[in-house]
Protein 1
Amino acid sequence: MEGVLDHSLRDVLTRVGGIDRCVSEFIRITDQLLPARVFTRLMPELHHGSRTPAGTPVRAQLLGSDPACLAENAARLAELGPAGIDLNFGCPAKVVNRHRGGAVLLDEPELVHAIVAAVRRAVPAAMPVSAKMRLGHRDEALMLDNARAIAAAGADELVVHARTKLHGYKPPAYWDRIAHIREAVSVPVVANGEVWTVEDAHRCLHESGCDALMLGRGLVGDPGLARALRGRAQPAWADLLPLVRLYGRLITPRVAARHRGGRIKQWLNMLRRRHPGAEQAYAAVRELNDAVEIDERLAALQVEQLTEAEVLVA
């Protein structure tokens, strides 16, 4: 989820708990070998054993169309010790697809195979190599061809977003199609797409036949969703508001001042879907653009919540 789920939000979300593993935002590979500092800038967890501060392992995701260049960069990345390397065949963004990246590659199963095989050969055998795909580019005609190409090339795991590129993020997700992919390949398959609630998750697992889920927007909008899927208590808004403020502090060193406020409001806007308290917080800061002013307003709300809690206890 480029532009949303970066390492700062990975840090915050994994503090909430319930997450087994994260995948970085994609690292675009074109025609050159990237220096190590590019990988560590986008995935600073590489400096800490490829884990978030909460201890959750992170795989690095690569996106591109040149097998040789992807393999060369994967080899350099492997030297930095990621928890694994993931390959992106699912991004629906027009600008990415125009430059032969993401879901558009699903029109070429042979190229998909070549990419996965080249990366698999380039990294140590013990390092997991996974891939994420959609059901197809414009339709599902090559769905099984692509899944088989990825598995035959040596991928250890396949994540399937249950929509085509043409579907974008428009509901519904076609979880039953994932079941056909599971029957066609021998590698573990992880279901993804349109999982917003515990009920969605259970239906997705039932229809897909999978026993694992990848959560994206659903987890960003409801940070307690992974906990809830494990039968653990959901965090209250009073627990999440300090994490929103923490996110604002984490992005400060690397996000331009003019963009920081927008990033905080972007996450608050997504949180409104699940938390009424986020609606109140978003309304309180909607007209503000300065991150410092936004944090001050959120701090005031946090104090109000603590005061109300004390009154209720008393």
Note: Residues 163 and 170 are 9 Å apart (CA to CA).
Protein 2
Amino acid sequence: MTDSTPDFINQWINLAQPRLGAEIVSCSDDAFAECCRMLKPEAPVFIDGKFDDFGKWMDGWETRRRRNGGYDHAIVKLGLPGEIKGIDIDTTHFTGNYPPAASLEACYSEAVPDENSDWSELIASTSLNGNSHHYFEIDNRNCFTHIRLNLYPDGGVARLRVHGKVVSDASALDKSALHNLAAVELGARAIAWNDAHFGAVENLLNPGKGINMGDGWETRRRREPGNDWSIIELGHVGDIEQIILDTAFFKGNYPDRCSIQAAMVGAGTADSIVTQSQFWQELLPPQKMEMDKVHEFSGEVQSIGPVSHIRVNMFPDGGISRVRILGKIHG
């Protein structure tokens, strides 16, 4: 367990997002607060004086006081199968009602798992504190579809985050078809950016349309020369044929222009890739942007061969809702 915010929070996506399909498939008890609240994307809140039919309203999962031995547990189906890199068990606002300890297991299962499933222990029983984040680095290269959180003996957890790498099988995809290689479902991820003051870069890769202006990548107002940028590792190497840049909901704060550079990247750290990216070839030369609009480019896309990474440039700053990189999987 680590105390300070670990790198995996920004390096890997939360596989337990409901918008990706994550859901609670079973829980032993949620008498005080529904288990599904534990997966809510927003930070937990405390509302003084708010009560419901079950008692004090809490923004998380809370079980009753256990008087008969045993322990409470919940099984979560991850939104996408993946390698788990880190866990955050968050007890924010739970003070006299947090679990004294917890453990976490994971399995790969096509069906709803049960006690007889092949569970792997990722976090052994560990003491928890109230009103705290508990970060755990995970060293396991297996692919998992479900996790089971165990509370000893009972209590409440505000949020559970399961950060990891989406596992996408290229052999199962049609090589002759166009795929959005910047889709989180195919394993795309943001690896570096110069600024994300108002909205996370990973939002660019989310499925579907943006739900509001906060569901996109937005930088602060630039007061110095230069431009804002982000680097995305595509889910699969591919030959790019079409690019879609969507500025949905961005009106007085959309970029004046955007361009995309790309390259086939070998081994390297995020820092070395940032340095190299300044010299990558242009996949899409600078294009004028408009507010709240889907911009589609095909003839403007340059043929530069297979690529594994892209750099999205905004001139000078602003916000984009979604980036779609349509291409054929290479190899």
Note: The longest strand covers residues 72-90.
Protein 3
Amino acid sequence: MTQLTITEHTFNSDRHKTFYRAAGPVDGPLIIFTHGWPEQSLSWRHQLPFFAAMGFRAVAPDMRGYGYSSIYHNHSDYCQQEIVFDMLELLESLQAQKAIWVGHDWGAPVAWNIARHHPEKCVGVASLCIPYATLEQGLDFMISLVNRDVYPIDEFPAGQWEYMRFYEENFADATKPMDANPRNMLQAMFRKGSADGMGTPSGTAMVRRDGGWFGGLDEAPVVPRDDDVISEAELDIFSQALSRNGFFGPNSWYMNHEANAKYHQRPNNSDNLAMPALFLAGHFDYTCESITSRLTEPMRQKCKNLTEATIDSGHWMAQEKPQAVNRELARWIFNQNLVGQES
């Protein structure tokens, strides 16, 4: 019988420890889910049993700096090249040659980079919210794609990515209020999407101007938990992990734009992706706005077998609209005949 229970595992190499959650038969086709900021493997709790029921071996690691995976104390330890190596070691430990890779937020460039630099390890690649060849190319490139109708350059020089500039310029000030109360921070961040913000600047554009996420407050304010995104018990797990580890690691992912861009530009493989690729845009994701902006242009030029779909959700779509996400992922997998291509 297919194992639908989510189980917990740890893989140790000489250089890194990866904790991961998994479900499904160990000999099933492999699908690996990579999370973003400020999440952990639990973010994929709705996807793992769904794909396990379909016969997949579904795996979601805690990325470095998160949960029970290794924590590091230098910004440079969180560059994409190191993180991709973590995932290649995990893949080998699972005794698999390749996998379907699915990433969200900062987990998306991890999946895209595996497809870009190690196409032989990739059956297909899917991303939630972050198009190909954007975040991998660094902050300056992302800024070049900003919709200036929404973000006038004199008011928002970095557009919706102003918060990333704030991390670079004031890392300690950006991180301190998060560490002061991780639970409040997560409760404020994990919100469902709404049509109300359409066509207006994202809150992320205000962070640098206001001196922090919450206008320079010592910690995030108390706001009601959004039950449509996360339960009380789930919030406990997220907040306990970040209370234990702190935000230095998660926020350090934002401190490697130059190194990440150099890694992306390495000429070892074609910049174009030939394998099946899927991009899921959030209709109400106003930070990674991919509906009316130019953010998808590089992906559409460079992905030769691209499928796109839009989910009526905000940024946290795997948690807010899991049924819709699962449906689109499954449809793409079977339309592209990806099952059986992993060996």
Note: The radius of gyration is 19 Å.
Protein 4
Amino acid sequence: MNAILARIVLALCLIFVPISLIRAQETKYVMVIHGGAGTILQSQMTAEREVAYKTKLTEALNAGYQLLKSGKPSLDAVEAAVRILEDSPLFNAGKGAVFTHDGKNELDAAIMDGTTLRAGSIAGVTTIKNPISAARAVMEKSEHVMMVGPGAEKFAKEAGLEIVDPSYFRTQSRWDALQKAIKEDSLKAAAEKSNRKGQLFGIQNKDNKFGTVGAVALDQKGNLAAATSTGGMTNKKYGRVGDAPLIGVGTYANDIVGVSCTGWGEFFIRNVVAHEVAALMAYKGLSVEAATQELIFKKVPALGGDGGLIALDKNGRMAMPFNTEGMYRGAVTQDGKIEVYIYKN
């Protein structure tokens, strides 16, 4: 009799509770990753290119998952996943980094251990093959949190990391994007001089602001870690640094949640986005979904910015909100099921 009653109650619950909500509450994720948010027009995405993106995201997720499955720490998993994305010309990080106004590839990265709050980051480097590994070296092999420019490169070389000629990062598609951005900025300047506020020829230049890769993982001991790597903004000038390498802004992890951001960095900096997610969860008791939506759908847009983020909490609940056309992203569950998306689902 009790068994029959229990089945009736369960059936009633299924009627009134959305299946998607039940699934979200029951599913435990161990890693989430992203490959950048922006104006990713589905109409301009070829089938072959979409497969290439999804294949590389799946490879990164599987690499991280295998480490987690074998009992390795979350730091190892996020570093491994990000390195794979850094080595691919598809993403704006490492090999696929965009060009600055001066025709250089300047790389930024950060990593953070949620258990100890140790963190490391680098910015403005041009010769380190895998910036995320350099960020981890800063965390583990120095007394500092952040190193920049030639000093960071010297440190990375002394730490035994792979150093490459700057030409390694050059790709034709990114060079073409720089030439387009320079032309659009020139037309925009001409329009503003004519008091038309940059509306000449419908110039928006939005794609130049986006592109980052990141990962957040939860290991078997319940420890969280987050990592982010980027080539910055196309046509950026004067040593500009965005949110990705700034701890608490584009990258953050503690014992509650891990966060990695992607988007228009200046607005993420002003909102201290990654730490704000953790603060909303800690001090207001918001869920990871509610906290991330507060930032991505309210606070960042309120200032004029856009982008997205990935987050994973201590219970394995994840969130991947974005307010752009698309965001390369994916997740893997505790049992190894991989999910990869580009557009809104």
Note: Residues 28-40+56-341 form a domain with the Glutamine Phosphoribosylpyrophosphate, subunit 1, domain 1 fold (CATH 3.60.20.30).
